């Protein structure tokens, strides 16, 4: 599963949380948001983080991304 799909399944409806806001932001930019394949977590982490920084994500969103990425990697490695 991609990080994008993970966020849509796990955090999209968390209305008032930073992870929920990040997921809704990702969905509103779904055509431009980078979507990784399986594995190669480090490279994709860097690519998505750079994308968020280039699009002026605030600190709260970047923290939500880091936390969500760790959840995603844990989920994928199960």
What do these coordinates show?
This protein is mainly α. It has helices at residues 3-10, 18-28, 41-54, 59-77. Helix 2 crosses helix 4 (59-77) and helix 3 (41-54) packs antiparallel against helix 4 (59-77). It is globular. The protein starts with a helix and ends with a helix. The model has no long low-confidence stretch (mean pLDDT 91).
Summarize the entry for a quick read.
The chain has helices at residues 3-10, 18-28, 41-54, 59-77. With 78 residues, the chain is mostly helical.
Q: Which descriptors apply to this entry?
A:
single chain; 78 residues; mainly alpha; 67% helix; 0% strand
Secondary structure elements and their pairing?
Blueprint (H helix, E strand, L loop, with lengths): L2 H8 L7 H11 L12 H14 L4 H19 L1
Helix pairs in contact: 2-4, 3-4
